[in-house]
Amino acid sequence: MSSADPGSKPDSWSGEPAEFDDYAAEYEGGLDNPVKRLMSKSPDQFIAVKTRWLLRREPALRGGGLAMLDYGCGVGSLMRVLAEAGGRADFAGCDISTGMLRQVEKRWPAQLGAPPALAPQQGAQTPFADGQFDIATVSAVLHHVPVAERPAVYAELGRVLKPGGRLYVFEHNPRNPLVRYVVAHTAIDRNAILLDATEVRHGLLNAARYDLDTDYLMFMPPGLALLRPVDRALAWLPLGAQYVVAAHKPG
Ligand SMILES: C[S@@+](CC[C@H](N)C(=O)[O-])C[C@H]1O[C@@H](n2cnc3c(N)ncnc32)[C@H](O)[C@@H]1O
């Protein structure tokens, strides 16, 4: 296998150093920020807000058999937290940082079975086939992608998604003042350029025909299970700390 083949061995990966290589070994989702730590002590609880939403939206993920790509998967937290919550899929992850990808297997618990197939990206490009995935997720990635390179990411996601496939873009919401404060004071976000849901929707529609809808997430601290119904009731309000743009590719 060449270094770009999905599922190739980490020791065969090569390429330019990426910004997140420096954070990989200690990566814990920006939880070094004291305000973020006040919201929850566990980085997984922030991810779990997204995976709970995903399992409500895609109940078939509990049954297995779907092919799912997490683009910019980092250390694999979204796939791992999803699997720990009962999500079953043929998972694949890619990232521009091989340092982050090398952490995926290290952090993947043996009881979850085989770890995801992994592939380093060459810029926005992945080695995956056209129409390979039923579902693709992009979580907290786009604000790290330079604005001029984002159209290439949207195009790549449209390419690897099956007709009828679904793409879910999770992002920090710049309309939430606390989010802007946290991002401005977190080391891993020092080069971040936030984007709102309107920019994501326009970017996606420039790349492919999609049916789109948007939910806002994380109005309440993610660890407070009792307040989850409040979060769900407010999903229409564009002030949550996170949002998800859901894009359905016509079949
Ligand atoms: C904040 S981390 C999020 C990781 C993971 N998606 C999660 O939710 O835990 C951002 C990730 O985006 C990756 N990234 C940055 N620029 C990228 C690009 N142009 N293409 C793909 N991934 C990129 C980084 O290497 C890093 O792993």
Structure description:
The protein has 251 residues and is an alpha/beta fold. The protein has a single domain (10-248), classed as 3-Layer(aba) Sandwich (Rossmann fold), CATH 3.40.50.150. The chain contains eight helices and seven strands. A seven-stranded mixed β-sheet has the order 3-2-1-4-5-7-6, with helices on both faces. Helix 2 (43-57) packs across helix 3 (77-84). The longest helix is centred in the N-terminal third of the chain and has 15 residues, at 43-57. The two termini are 32 Å apart. The model has no long low-confidence stretch (mean pLDDT 93).
Unreliable residue stretches: none
Beta-strand percent range: 15-25%
Number of helices: 8
Corresponding CATH superfamily: Vaccinia Virus protein VP39
Mean pLDDT: 93
Largest sheet: 7 strands, mixed
**Overall tally of domains:** 1
How is the CATH topology named? Rossmann fold
CATH architecture annotation: 3-Layer(aba) Sandwich
Can you give keywords for this protein?
251 residues, alpha/beta, Rossmann fold, seven-stranded mixed sheet, 8 helices, binds S-adenosylmethionine
Structural topology:
Blueprint: H1 34-39, H2 43-57, E1 67-71, H3 77-84, E2 90-95, H4 98-107, E3 117-120, E4 133-139, H5 150-160, E5 161-172, H6 177-184, H7 197-207, E6 211-217, H8 228-233, E7 242-248
Parallel strand pairs: 1-2, 1-4, 2-3, 4-5
Antiparallel strand pairs: 5-7, 6-7
Helix pairs in contact: 2-3, 5-7
Bound molecules: S-adenosylmethionine (SAM).
The site of S-adenosylmethionine has 19 residues, from helix 3.
